[in-house]
Amino acid sequence: MNSELHHVVVVGAGFGGLELVRALGKAPVRVTLIDQRNHHLFQPLLYQVATTSLATSEIAWPIRHLVRHEKAVTTLLATVTGVDKANKCVVLDDGDTIAYDTLVLATGARHSYFGRDEWEQFAPGLKTLEDATTIRRHVLRAFEQAERETDAEARNALLTFVIIGGGPTGVELAGTIAELAHATLRADFRNIDTRDTKVVLVEAGDRILAAFRPDLSAYAKRALERLGVTVELGHAVSSCNADGVVFGGRHLAARNIIWAAGVAASPAAQWLGAEADRAGRAIVEDDLTVAGHPDIFVIGDTAQVKRADGRPVPGIAPAAKQAGRHVAATLKARLAGNDAKRPFVYKHQGDLATIGKRAAVIDFGRISFTGWPAWWLWGIAHIFFLIGLRNRLAVAMNWLWIYATGQRSARLITQGRQPSSP
Amino acid sequence: MNSELHHVVVVGAGFGGLELVRALGKAPVRVTLIDQRNHHLFQPLLYQVATTSLATSEIAWPIRHLVRHEKAVTTLLATVTGVDKANKCVVLDDGDTIAYDTLVLATGARHSYFGRDEWEQFAPGLKTLEDATTIRRHVLRAFEQAERETDAEARNALLTFVIIGGGPTGVELAGTIAELAHATLRADFRNIDTRDTKVVLVEAGDRILAAFRPDLSAYAKRALERLGVTVELGHAVSSCNADGVVFGGRHLAARNIIWAAGVAASPAAQWLGAEADRAGRAIVEDDLTVAGHPDIFVIGDTAQVKRADGRPVPGIAPAAKQAGRHVAATLKARLAGNDAKRPFVYKHQGDLATIGKRAAVIDFGRISFTGWPAWWLWGIAHIFFLIGLRNRLAVAMNWLWIYATGQRSARLITQGRQPSSP
C-alpha cells in the first residue's frame, strides 16, 4: 500500500460507512475501515431473526469479504474509544492509534431508555445480532415455561408480550409475535393454547408509524388488530420490571417486554467534543463535516442533519447510504483540487413497514400501498437490497416457506444460561 | 391425556430418544419427552457450523415441533438432576418430580479431557450449538488478530491451528479449516497471507480414523496432507495452555486448539447408581435395561453395549436410532403381554468421514469408497437424514454454493465479549 496516499479512516461499516467505501472506488486514496464487529448487519430485517423467521447468517456478512475487491481498503476489527483531533488520529481500546488525513464517523445508534437504563434487563432492545438471539430466546422460553406452569395467573403473564414503541420495529415485532403465537406454534403444545397469547403494542403518541400518513397509520392499526394485537395509544410507559409494565396508570402483568421506543447515538459526538442534540447525535454542518474541522465527517444515525424544510433527516438505511455517497463525492472533488463546500441534500424515497406475513404499508408520499400488494413490494425491495445472490435466494426461500406453511425455521433457544449437565 | 395409560418418560431428544418416541407411534402409552435444550441437534454436521459452512438453524429443530403430530407426547424443556428408583420418578433441577412407569435415559455424551479439565479453556470441544459458535468465533478472530499483529512470531502462533484427536470430527475440522484458510479467506486480508496458516492434526494412535480399514485411514491422511494439513501420529498431547500444545516432547506455539479427542457419558449412570465403564457409560443388559430394573432403559452414547463379537457398539447416530427402535418394540411387546427379554442386536451400516469439500472415505466393510464419489455419496446421505424438506433444500443449496464458489456464508463472530460502546 502506498503510504503517501491520502488516508481516509472510516469508523463503522453500517449502511453509511460501507456505501462510502464502495463509492470511493478507484479514487487515489488508501482507506482503513474499522468496526468493532466482523460483520455488516442488515438491520431492517433484524426483527425477523428475533422472531425465528431468519437465521443470523442470512442478514449479516463479513465486512472484509464485502470489500475484498477494493484493494485500497484495509479492514480492521477493532474498538475505537476516542479521537485525537490535534494529532489527527483515532484511539483504539488497546491504546493503538491510527492516523488519518480524513476521518468519517459512521458509528450508528443504540436503543435508549431515556435515562431509565435499569429497564434494559426487563425490556431488551433490538440493535445487534446478539440482541435478536436474546429476544428470540426470551420469546421461545416464555412458551416453554407456560407449558409447565400450573398457576393460571402466572401462565397468563408468561403468555403476555408487551412491545413498547409504535415505530416500524415495534409494529413488525408485534405482528410477527402474534403470528408466531396464533399460527406457527399452535400444534406444538399440549398444556397451553398458544392462541391465548396476548400481544400489546404500547405507543406514547396518538398513532403508530408516526412517520407515515395518518390514514396509513390507521390502516396499520387495523391490520395489527386483525392479527390479534392490542394497540394502546397515548400512553407512555412509566415503569418496567420483572412482573410487567405500568402505562396509563394501570399495571399489566407481562413476563415478556421488548423495547422499541428510543434511540441514542453512539458517542461519536463525545469523542469529538462536538455539539450534540438530546439523543447524542453530533450536530454537523450542511456538508456533513464538524464545525471547524473540514477533515472530519459524521454520517448516519450518529449525526443530526436538517433537511431544507427544517425537519431532520430520518435514521434509516437510505439516508445513511446517501450521506456515504455524498462524502465520497466530496472527497473525490477535494482530491481533484475543488475545495468548495458541497451541501448534502437528502432525497426521501419513502417509508415501509410490514404487519405480519400478508400486510404492509408503503408511503411514497403521493402514492401509497397497503395490504398484500404492499407486502409483496416490501419483500421484493428487501430481497433486492440484501447483499449477494446466495442470501437473496436463501431469504426468498425462507419467506416463501413461511408464507406457504406458516412454519419458521430458526426456533432456537441458544446461549443464555448454559445447561450444566453433562 | 388419559392418565391411566402407561407413562413412558424419555430423557434426551437426541437420535435415540427421538427415534424411540416416533417408533412408539400409536402404542397405548402416554409419553413425556424431557430435554434441557429446546432443539434436536444433527450432531454429524456440527463441525460445519464451527467452520462457517452452515447456519445453526440448518442443523437444529425445535423438539416439540418434530413430535407435534404425536398427540400422546408432551415435550418438556427441563433439566433432570436425578432418578428416584424407589418412587419411580425423575427429579428436575427446580425440585419437581415426574413419575414414570417406564424410564428411558438417552442423555448422550460430552467431550472429556481425561481428567485435565483445565485444558477446556484453551482447547474447546464440539458437542453443542454454543460449542460450534464458540469455535467459529475463535477461528475467525485468530485471522482478525493476525491481520493487526506486527510481530512475526506472534502472528505465526495466531495462524497455527491444532486439532487434537484423529476421529471423524477431528479429520473433518482439520480439512475444513485448511480449506477456509487456503481458499475461502484468501482474498479478504491485506497484511497476512492466509495461505501461511498451519493446520496440525494430532492423534495419539498410529493412524487416523481408527474405526475404518487401515487403507482408508492411509487415504484420509494423504487427502488431508494434500489440503495442507500436517498429520502427527503416535503422539499424545501432554500439555495445553494459552501459548500452545506439547506433544511428542516438543512445544508447538499455537493460539487455536480444538479438542476432538475424548468423550464422557452424561451422568445417567450416576443418577441410577448403576455400574459404569471408564467413560462413565452405564453398563446395561443385552436388552438395554439396567440390571435389576426392567423398567429402566439406557440407550445411545450414555450406555455401554457389547456386540456379539465383544466389541462395543459405537457412539454414532445409527446405533442410537437402532437402540431407540429396539426399546419401542420391547415396550409394545410388553404392553401386548409378552415380557420375554429381547436382546438388542446392533447392525453396523458403515463409517463415513469427509476430508474437505472434494474427498471423503466411506467404509461399508466389504465395499468402500474414496475421493469425490465418496464425497457426493456422503453429501446425499446426510441431506437424506436431515429433517424436513426445507432444511434439505437449504443445506443442499449451501453445499453447492461452497462447492462452486469456495465461499462460506456463516462467517460471523457473535457472542463472547460484547462490544461495550453502542
Uncertain residue ranges of chain A = 418-422
Output the CATH homologous superfamily of the largest domain in chain A.
FAD/NAD(P)-binding domain
Beta content of chain A = 15-25%
Mean pLDDT of chain A: 92
Attribute tags:
11 helices, FAD/NAD(P)-binding domain, elongated, 422 residues, NDH2-like_C (chains A, B), disordered C terminus, alpha/beta, 2 domains, homodimer
Description of the structure:
- Two copies of one chain form a homodimer.
- Chain A is an alpha/beta fold.
- Chain A folds into two domains: 6-111 and 263-336, FAD/NAD(P)-binding domain (3-Layer(bba) Sandwich), CATH 3.50.50.60; 117-261, 3-Layer(bba) Sandwich (FAD/NAD(P)-binding domain).
- Chain A is 31% helix and 25% strand.
- Chain A is built from eleven helices and 25 strands.
- In chain A, the strands form eight sheets. A six-stranded mixed sheet of chain A has the order 5-2-1-9-21-20, with helices on one face. Chain A has a four-stranded parallel sheet with strand order 13-12-11-17. A three-stranded antiparallel sheet of chain A has the order 6-7-8.
- In chain A, a hairpin with a 4-residue loop joins strand 7 (89-92) and strand 8.
- In chain A, helix 1 packs parallel to helix 9.
- The longest helix of chain A is centred in the N-terminal third of the chain and has 20 residues, at 129-148.
- The first copy, chain A, is elongated, with a radius of gyration of 22 Å.
